[in-house]
Amino acid sequence: MDYNFDKLIDRRKTGSLKFDGAVSRGKPADILPLWVADMDFPAPDCVLDALQRCVSHGIFGYTEPDGSYFEALAAWFTGRFGYEFDSAWVTLTPGVVYALCAAISAYTQSGDAVLIQEPVYYPFRESILANERRLIVNELHLKEDAYVVDFADFEQQIAENSVKLFILCNPHNPVGRVWRADELREMVRICVKYDVLILCDEIHCDFVFPGHTHLCLPALLPEDQAKMILLTAPSKTFNLAGLQISNVFISDPTLRRAFRREVSKNGYSQANRLGIAACQAAYSGGADWLEALLSYLKDNMILIDRFLKEHLPAVRLIPPQGTYLAWLDCQKLGLSSDELDHKLVHEAGLWLSRGDTFGPSGAGFTRINAACPRPVLETCMKRFVSALG
Known about the structure:
The chain has helices at residues 17-20, 45-57, 67-81, 96-107, 123-130, 151-161, 181-193, 217-220, 235-238, 253-265, 273-285, 287-311, 337-347, 374-388; strands at 32-33, 90-93, 113-116, 134-137, 141-143, 146-148, 163-169, 197-201, 228-232, 246-249, 316-317, 325-329, 350-351, 353-354, 365-369. By secondary structure, it is α/β, with parallel strands linked by helices. Strands 2-10-9-8-7-3-4 form a 7-stranded mixed β-sheet, with helices on both faces. Strands 11-12-15-14 form a 4-stranded antiparallel β-sheet, with helices on one face. The chain starts with 16 loop residues before the first helix and ends with a helix.
């Protein structure tokens, strides 16, 4: 099928966080937003059709997923990533960040240490601190065109701080790494050595570019999966964030009971009916749409890279291995984070994600959400190079 990802859809006055949240967050009302990680593409037709059937039915009562829901999950995660699981392992939550906070609360105590790898998705840091846990950072290092793990520091931070929980981001937001098998094995080896539980945020698992392969952690190391909590959602892949549905896989029954107690303690039980329907439909019928989308996103990344090399070589795109998020190294411009943000907002008219929101090591970088129609991205890059060139 042909999919028109170039189509411009006006998202303003829909309550969109990306488009309608500018003024309340101190930005000009007419700013071009490419910050928050949702896409400017409609969900695939299979999802829209499923939602229309639900709306036509007209009743939105308490809903539980049935066997066909778990069959759709299995078809996707077993078929694409080789992850074999029992449906009893799955707990539905309204989102990965909710699940992350529930897991932190369920598996650690106030004052316990939780490890992350910055620069990383900022709700990791916020969730740890909001739950009154100690934030421990294993800083990723940029080596030429890719970030790498300092494994000596990784182990030292765990040992010296008695880390209880490690949050792994794979594919990694914002730096775009898709971790290799040897890297994942070494992180798991160290965690097992020190009895550290691993939260695997794999929400971007479906966005991997040619030459790279996403390895689902419990599928890669099934012998150690009792120490892993797998966090997934269709929200990034199929642009369903507003429907608030995610799937958490926990093989160990003791850990699963603890997690579900925490979810229940927070007053959550049945998932959103529309979210359940959309998730099932997406995993059942959205594969062709996704393949077309991946090709489109690859060309969007090429556009960003070409623009910078031709018009602003002082800024470079860190070659993305996964996600639809472009991580730009602006350090050679010699601007502080505030100066860079001011130029982008007030001279370029662009609302991007500041690099330092992902941790101090993100200073001097900015993140562009490339999941938008190409004409919008072209406008963004023209403004970007004009303001910073």
